[in-house]
Amino acid sequence: MNIPVTIGLPQLLLFLLGLIGLSLLISCVMELSRGHVEKYVSERGEHRYRRRRRLRWGRGLSGVVLALLALSLLWATFLVQTYLGLTSDIRVAQVRAAPLEGIPHLMSVELVLYDKDGHQVMDKTYPVQGDEWMLQGDIIKFPGWLNILGLHSGYKLTRLEGRFDDPNLESNAKHTVITLNGGDDNFFRTVQQQAWVSPVVEAAYGNAVFLAADSKSYDIFVSQTGLYAKPAK
Length: 233
Known about the structure:
Elements: H1 9-32, E1 34-41, E2 47-54, H2 57-86, E3 90-99, E4 106-114, E5 120-129, E6 132-141, H3 144-147, E7 154-163, H4 167-172, E8 177-179, H5 186-193, E9 203-212, E10 217-222, E11 227-231
């Protein structure tokens, strides 16, 4: 299961902005209530000192201004960082499928896989029964508060299959199923079945993208919600 973390210059700048906001909040609390040392005479006539805390209205007003500014900065940080996380789509594969001449319902499918950093890790060609190719994967979706930290949805490509245009063939003909990356793993099954992971996992589900064998190349991307394909450049 790949769980890419999107951390770049925009995220670092936003985290810095959040730290500034936090420091302003701390400064606000310190300004609203600051202690002072007071000299007094005890019942025995001895000079002693004690610390009192009092509200300084001038500093309190400046603290309120700092608090409002800090909250605005934090709100902007969380809002923008979530948006950056949601739009960080990752290319995970490229597919090119061509029907074999003279052999109905059979195609040659070239599948190229990439890791989370965009490096090619596999390039294989398979004979696949069907008129359309279908690439399947497991998706683990994290809640928005983890997107704020730059954590992208987890994904794993698990199968390459063929599909038939004719429903009768789809129901009765032999299918080609090619397992990728070991198929569904124990981590994915655990996330689906165990309730204790629900606070940090929003959803875990299978997802697929399929297109006709038209001899064109398609890039396959994973987003925060699943897989999608678009023509390769």
